[in-house]
Amino acid sequence: MNVGIICYASVGGSGIIATELGKGLAARGHRVHILSADTPVRLTDYTPGLSFHRVETPTYPLFREPQYLLSLANKIVQVSRDERLDIVHAHYAIPHATAAYLARQILASTWRGTAPPAAPVPRTITTLHGTDITLLGGDPTYKETVAFCIEQSDGVTTVSESLKADTIRHLGVRSEIRVIPNFLDCSRYRRRDVGGLRARLAPAGQAVFIHVSNFRTVKRTPVVIEVFARVRAQVPATLLMVGDGPDMGEAVRLSRQLDVADDVAFLGVQEQVVPLLSVADGFILPSSQESFGLAALEALACEVPVVASRVGGLPEVIEDGVNGFLHATDDLDGMAASAVRLATDPARQAEMARAARRIVEERFSESRIVPLYEDYYEAVLRRAARGYTPS
Ligand code: GMT
């Protein structure tokens, strides 16, 4: 197949999954074209069969805002014609599902513009990732357009059952939705021997906890500090804070206010998280919403049990008491108690670490999930060949 993948290039789970999917499809012999405003963070090495098309959005003094939707739709039209795409796969609905819809309408019309010959009309698939539904999609500013364009996609997937339910509940989407969970390459995401790194990051005998995120409100980064302060009051421990974002300042301030600053290392954005995860005993993720929790999956793959809030798709990734612990979002004492358990019961921690790895290998490996997308593409193309069009 000839597949166009649209995604955000910035650090974020949706762009990572889109890029890893592109690489996985190319490795399976498909031709893949990634369309994005910048080179996605995970598109580092050359992958045979995979090419990148930059979406340029020119500025003009009359416009207060860059016209990204138009430039993206136009780019999809051009790449579809030049490369004869079978599938255009939009990751993150806003505004990618809308751009894909607009491009498909242009390609399906009798209007040929300045670019004959006519190309086949690609089928559009939208993968919903989370905040495109739970935070933004339902916002009255966007709702009708987002819901319409999702329904107009030839196929719709979500990364969890929970997000599927939210899509139906918040947006009233009536299309059939297929759940295809997120994934990772288990050979790259695995616990490594990182020599003396642990000793450099934490004094001997201290438990090491870690949090990795974009420090946005939904991640409740200051709550990570609050939970850690409760842990620190009971056991010697170090916390690694990886990432950056709007709540960074508040997290730093709180670590001083709660008198744990000496035990918290703010490491900023790190491209390589595996070495850091490889020294950790537990991951703290008290998000207010999480459609899936790719950061949790990366931790589990590196044998780090996750202490998290019981929200969204996290219970589909974390089995309470097996590979982590789940608590109500306001149960900070419970989260701290679970973290202390990991720090003080090495046998239990090791058992949960093994379960964490096993569950990722069994359910969320790239080799298991990428074929599910391939199957879905083929099903959508078969359905289109039978004359199906979204209502
Ligand atoms: O966080 C976002 O705003 C968007 C998105 C992203 O690009 O990182 O995150 C969502 O998609 C990820 C990949 O599918 C999921 O692992 C995250 O759980 C999800 N974030 C939320 O639901 C808050």
Spell out the blueprint of helices and strands.
Layout: E1 2-6, H1 13-27, E2 31-36, E3 50-54, H2 68-83, E4 87-91, H3 93-108, E5 123-128, H4 131-134, H5 143-152, E6 155-158, H6 161-171, E7 177-179, H7 197-201, E8 207-212, H8 221-232, E9 237-242, H9 248-257, E10 264-268, H10 274-277, E11 282-285, H11 294-301, E12 306-309, E13 324-327, H12 332-344, H13 346-363, H14 366-385
Helix pairs in contact: 1-14, 2-3, 3-5, 8-9, 8-12, 11-13
Residues 12-15, 17, 129-131, 159, 182, 218, 289-294, 312 line the site of ligand GMT.
Can you walk me through this structure?
The protein is α/β, with parallel strands linked by helices and 391 residues long. It has helices spanning 13-27, 68-83, 93-108, 131-134, 143-152, 161-171, 197-201, 221-232, 248-257, 274-277, 294-301, 332-344, 346-363, 366-385; strands at residues 2-6, 31-36, 50-54, 87-91, 123-128, 155-158, 177-179, 207-212, 237-242, 264-268, 282-285, 306-309, 324-327. It has 2 domains: 2-183 and 366-385, Rossmann fold (3-Layer(aba) Sandwich), CATH 3.40.50.2000; 195-363, Rossmann fold (3-Layer(aba) Sandwich). The protein has a 7-stranded parallel sheet with strand order 3-2-1-4-5-6-7, sandwiched between helices. The radius of gyration is 22 Å and the shape is elongated. The site of ligand GMT has 18 residues, from helix 1.
